[in-house]
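Appendix B. One record, verbatim.
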Amino acid sequence: MIKIYHNNRCSKSRCGLDILEKSGKDFEVIKYLENTPSIKELKDIIKLLNIKPIQLVRKNESIWKENFKNKALSDSEIISAMVEYPKLIERPIVINGKKAVIGRPPEIISTIL
């Protein structure tokens, strides 16, 4: 089943949700601020995205700037920071089987449907 890690306060995430709704396919909405992925889930997502953990971080968030910016963090420390502060996770993330994308721009979601 298709999954979208969604934050309704984010316009890009709302656009991604709209793309999924219009696709007519079944999907699951995961409100990741309320249902934070575990460390293992986040590692699996990062592997599917084929990126480094730092590439999933919203570096303009004040939490990042105040607590983590300019620190030499390991991949594990970055993942732990995202689990502790899920607001740091880039969004939306859409997973379809073994394919995943960060929906920025949201239109990229269509490439894995």
